[in-house]
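Input/output pair, single chain:
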Amino acid sequence: MRTPLLILIAGPYRSGTDGDPARIAANLERLEEASAPIFRLGHVPMIGEWVALPILRTRGATGAADADGDVMYETAHRLLQHCDAVLRLPGASAGADTDVEIARERGLPVYFSIDEIPAA
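Output:
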């Protein structure tokens, strides 16, 4: 049995939403949909927004459209110091592209499909 991986799920969050809270929520839901299959494979899924959004709320952000990009990107950057791999979901996203770039610089596997992730 392989050691479970901490896998960052990267994909669009605010990209392509024009700040519409419903579209942002739909993007987060799509990111979260990837978490159960990763868990079933024996790994630990992680989404940067799960960490960044509480930080933003305590800093006074009133919603996802109010999110500070610096906090979002810095949170993902810090998380990638602990993650073992990245799952890049489809869709335009500068932040997710940066996550992939950082992962590759660190020599981490980058998956583009759940099917590519080996079971633990």
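Helices lie at 21-33, 35-40, 48-58, 69-79, 94-105. The mean pLDDT is 91.
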